[in-house]
Amino acid sequence: MTVTILLLIVAGLPEIAVVSPVTNVVFCVEDDILHTYIHDFTSRQYMITPDFEYFHYIDRSASDIEYHNHDFYEIYFFISGKVNYIIEGKSYRLKPGDILLIHNNELHKPIIEHGETYERIVLWVSPDLLKKQSNKNTNLSLCFESFFPGKTNLLRPNPDLLNKIKNILSNFENACSSMSYGFHNIYIFK
Fold it and tell me: Is the model's pTM score more than 0.85?
């Protein structure tokens, strides 16, 4: 439920980056002018917006990614491929629909088996944003914290919840790519 709430909260933010699998063309709006760039997967591990970034990647030839951590929380939604994801030494064999919640201090990396299309949605969220959106009754950062017994980074939603999450992500991506959603404040990478 917390992941769904997080997705709904970040879906309303004006500053966002979206990477869509449709093409490898980057559209960027600056000073009311639409600029086009070519974009390939980047191993950039820093945010260019202060609050939130959204990426939808499809790779047909996987890159090797080193262990890393960053200054933001990561929500990783696995769609397809063959991937073992290692977080703080614990390995997760991913299945389509799996969600990983990664704290900003946790060392992590995917181990991608070559030969299959690797598709995922990655959401980067600033801890400050979640702190601002939380209140005395709701701590939105709690799902990323590792201080409680039995904590796992992996969520495997039941089919009903998975469909709701997919719909939220699809609606969010469609709204962003339509250029009508906060047009002046959105970077759209396609």
Answer: no
Helix axes 159-177, 2-11, angle to 10 degrees: 10
Whether 188 maps to a domain, the answer reads no
User: Could you tell me the CATH number of the domain that includes residue 156?
Assistant: 2.60.120.10
> Does 161 fall in a domain?
yes
HSE, side-chain direction, 13 A CA sphere, residue 41: 17
Distance CA 74, CA 122 (A): 7
- Quickly state the pLDDT bin for 41 (edges 50, 70, 90): low
Helices (DSSP H) in the chain: which residue ranges?
Answer: 2-11, 127-133, 159-177
For the chain, give the percent of residues with pLDDT over 70. 64
Number of domains in the chain: 1
Tens digits of residue pLDDT in 142-179? 888 866 666 789 999 999 999 999 888 887 777 666 65
What is the distance between the alpha carbons of residues 46 and 28, in angstroms, rounded to a whole number? 18
Residue 35, in any domain of the structure: yes
Output the average pLDDT for the chain.
72
What is the extent of the structural domain holding 85? Answer: 2-179
Residue 167 domain flag: yes
